[in-house]
Amino acid sequence: MQRAPETRELGPKAKRTRAAILQAAIDLLGEVGYERATIRAIAERAGVSTGNAYYYFGSKEEFVQAFYARTHAEHIVVARPRIAAAHGLRDRLRATMSAKLETVEPYHPFAGVLFRSAADPTSPLNPFSAASREVREDAIELFREVVVGMRKPLPKDLTAELPQLLWTWHMGILLYWVHDESEGRAKTWRLMEESSALIASAVKLSGLPLIAPLRRKLLRLARELTAGAA
Amino acid sequence: MQRAPETRELGPKAKRTRAAILQAAIDLLGEVGYERATIRAIAERAGVSTGNAYYYFGSKEEFVQAFYARTHAEHIVVARPRIAAAHGLRDRLRATMSAKLETVEPYHPFAGVLFRSAADPTSPLNPFSAASREVREDAIELFREVVVGMRKPLPKDLTAELPQLLWTWHMGILLYWVHDESEGRAKTWRLMEESSALIASAVKLSGLPLIAPLRRKLLRLARELTAGAA
DNA sequence: GTCTATAACCGGATAGAC
DNA sequence: GTCTATCCGGTTATAGAC
Q1: Stretch 118-147 of chain A: residues touching chain B, C-beta under 8 Å
Q2: CB distance from A223 to chain B under 8 Å?
C-alpha cells in the first residue's frame, strides 16, 4: 500500500526530484500567485510530469504549506535577535511581530489563499491541524522565549499560559493583515503597535486586587481549552 | 452587457426558478455536505441545467453564502426575545451567543467549508467583503441592541464601540467552534460562557482610575481601525 | 431583452502501465 | 519513481427559445 507523500522515506535521487518540484512551486507561487501556479506549470518547470508531482505532494495545498513553513522559518531567524535586544514586554512583542509583518509582506498579494484554509478543519493548512503542528509549536515556542527571557521575570501563571495566548493574538493580527489594503499596511502596523502596548499594560495591571480574579479566570480558561485539540 | 447575478432584476417566473435552485442547493448541502453537493446535482434536483444555475448564482460559494445568510436570519429570530429577557451584560451576551451556537450546530459537519473563506479577501464569503456587508451589519446591529437595551445604560463611549468589538468576539467564538470536536461542543460552550462573564467584568472594571486609560486607548483603536474597510 | 440549454474548457486529482 | 491517459467538477461560451 502506498504511503502518504509526507511520511515516505526517499532515496537521494528522489530527494532531488522532490526538492526540484518544491523549488519550482515556490518560485512560481511567488511569481504568478496561487491561481496561475497550476500543478501542470509547476511540474513543467521542474521538468517532471503532473502525475509525478503528486507522488511527492498530496495536493496543491501542500505546496502552499511548504511555502508557509518557509516564511515561518524566515520569521524566526529575523525575530530572535530582535527579541533578545528588547527588554520590556511591549518591546519584545513589537520585535516579534514587526519581524513577522516584514517577513510576510512580499506574499500579501496571495496571502488570502495562504490563509483561507485557516478556518477549514479538513485542510492540512489550518493552523490547528496535525500537519501544521510543528510550525505552530515552533511559533508558540518563540513566544515562550518572549515571555521567559524578560529582565523582570513574569509571574509563573502568566509564563505558562501567555505563549499560547500571544500566538492567538499573532494569528489575529495576521488575519487583519490579510484584509488590510491600507498604504504600507499602515493599519496593521498601528494595530500591532497599539495592541502590544495594551497587552503589556494589561499584564502589568493584572496583579491589582480587583483585577487578579479576572486574570486567574482567563488563564484557567486558556489552559483548559487548549488542553486537547483546538 | 450581462449584469452580475445578484444585482439582476427578475420576472416572477425567474424568481421561482431562482428559488427552486436555491432550495435544492440548501437541501443538498444539508443532506450530503459541500463536496458532494455538486452544481450538477443541485441543478438536476431543481430540474434545470447547470448552465442555468450559473445564470442565477455566480459561483458555488454564492450558494454557501445564501446558506449562511439563512442561518444568520434564523439566529436573529431566536436571539432577539432572549436578549430582551436578559438584563445584565453577561446574560445578554450569553443569550445572543447561545442562540447562535444552537442555530449553527446542525451545520457543523461542513462548517469548515462554510467558514474557510473567512480569511480570503478575494472571496465574497469573507465576513468583511461587500457581499457580506448586509449580513455583517445586521449582526453588528444585533450587538448594538445588546448594549443599548440594558437596564443600567453603559457609558457613551462603550455604547459606540462595543457592538463592533462584540461582533469580532462572536466571530472568534465561531472560529473556535468550527474546530471543536468535543462532545456536544462542550468546549465552545465553556468558552462562550466564560468569555461572556469576562467581558462583562472587564466592562464593569474599565471605569477604575488605573484602568480607564487602557479602555480609552482600546476604544480609540477600535474606532480608527474599523473606519475604512477591514 | 430575459431565460434556458448544450457543449466545451480548465485545472486538480487519480489509475494504472512501464 | 515516472509517465500517460483519464476522470471529475467548477466554470464559461454560446446558441437559441420564449
Answers
A1: 118-123, 126, 128
A2: no
> CB of residue B8 closer than 7 A to nucleic acid strand C?
yes
pLDDT tens track of chain B, all 230 residues?
577 887 788 888 899 999 999 999 999 998 999 999 999 999 999 999 999 999 999 999 899 888 888 889 999 999 999 999 999 999 999 999 999 999 999 888 878 877 777 677 777 778 787 778 888 999 999 999 999 999 999 999 999 999 999 999 999 999 999 999 999 999 999 999 999 999 999 999 999 999 999 999 999 999 999 875 44
Grid coordinates of B219: 476604544
Using a cut of 0.85, tell me whether the model's pTM lies above it.
yes
Q: What is the dihedral of CA B107, B109, B110, B115, to 10 degrees?
A: 70
CA distance B203 to A76: 36
- Choose among B223, B178, B30: nearest CA to A129: B178
Work out the number of other CB atoms within 10 angstroms of the CB of residue A114.
23
**Rg, Å, chain A Cα set:** 20
Say how far apart CA A149 and CA A91 lie, in whole Å: 12
List Cα–Cα distances, B46 to B24, B26, B41, B49, B56, in angstroms.
6, 11, 9, 9, 13
C-alpha grid cell for residue B7?
Answer: 444585482
Residue A31 has what DSSP assignment?
H
CA distance, residue A37 to nearest chain B CA (Å): 17
Asked if B217 CB < 7 A from strand C, the reply is no
Residue A54: CA count within 13 A, CB half-sphere: 8
Interface probe, candidates B128, B179, B198, chain A, greatest A C-beta count within 10 A: B179
User: CA of A121 vs C1' of C4, distance in Å?
Assistant: 38
Residue type at position A89: L
- What are the cell numbers at A103? 517577513
Q: Which amino acid is at B28?
A: L
Put simply, the answer to whether B228 touches A195 (Cβ < 8 Å) is no
Query: What is the residue type of A199?
Result: I
Tell if A220 CB is < 7 Å from nucleic strand C: no
Query: Which residue intervals of B86-132 are DSSP H helices?
Result: 89-104, 111-116
Nearest to A179 by CA among B112, B123, B54: B123
